[in-house]
Amino acid sequence: xxxxxxxxxxxxxxxxxxxxxxxxxxxxxxxxxxxxxxxxxxxxxxxxxxxxxxxxxxxxxxxxxxxxxxxxxxxxxxxxxxxxxxxxxxxxxxxxxxxxxxxxxxxxxxxxxxxxxxxxxxxxxxxxxxxxxxxxxxxxxxxxxxxxxxxxxxxxxxxxxxxxxxxxxxxxxxxxxxxxxxxxxxxxxxxxxxxxxxxxxxxxxxxxxxxxxxxxxxxxxxxxxxxxxxxxxxxxxxxxxxxxxxxxxxxxxxxxxxxxxxxxxxxxxxxxxxxxxxxxxxxxxxxxxxxxxxxxxxxxxxxxxxxxxxxxxxxxxxxxxxxxxxxxxxxxxxxx
Length: 336
Hints:
This protein has 336 residues and is mainly beta. It is 13% helix and 39% strand. The chain is built from two helices and 21 strands. Strands 1, 2, 4, 5, 7, 12, 13, 14, 16, 17 and 19 form an eleven-stranded antiparallel beta sheet that branches. The chain has a seven-stranded antiparallel beta sheet with strand order 3-6-15-8-9-10-11, with no helix packed on it. The radius of gyration is 34 Å and the shape is elongated. The termini are far apart.
């Protein structure tokens, strides 16, 4: 019996393994795929490489502002929103009362009534004689530089001639200096309510006898919406905590005058305002540590403010990927 041969040939399978070349090609492809995966994962962390530099840049700009203006500066840190808000004390008016007139260094000149010139700490001073309602007036209410909602500072040389209570300086009827008959210094300011309307008055008195009749004293008052200070001849004589917003200036600055006229001399008057710089924000993928200080302050030399921060600071940043970074602030204002 003849059998017909199978018309389809028998299939044969190659049982050999992969060649070395094929294995290398597979490894190359896997490396490319894994590299793309790492890149994709890294793209989920947009704060990588930018968050720490943003913090360092903001802190360094505050240090430079303090040095340039020879005045304090701070950076506020909001852990909830990731916002970094730099604030600095900037001089907005200076008056030395030399020569004729009442010229200011920034073009804010004044007009005087019954005032005189007399020897000052250096050169001439403004004198308010007894028996007159002497006053000097400076139209600051229309100048946007005189905006004090974030705080203020007044510095001057003052020499009362008599032990009596009197208004010495009133800035736009919003804040000012009052000299008491006891030789104490009183600083006051009006705050605003939630609707932005002028509300209560905040008052701080120093101890008695910090001012002596006929003698020059250097007085500085400062309010930064954290504390209100009175400093006489470099010594802090009064302090209180306060955080209220300062009311808007709507009137001239007045020296002397008032129902109880000031009798004495004023020299080297400097007026400063706390201003807000460019607000920066961290990426949403980066979170500040909860224990991070809400505000970092620098003194007039650009050093870390020792009153607020007795030790160097560390700011911790946590990324979405779990990576952590630390920004360090040294005692001398170094940012690392």
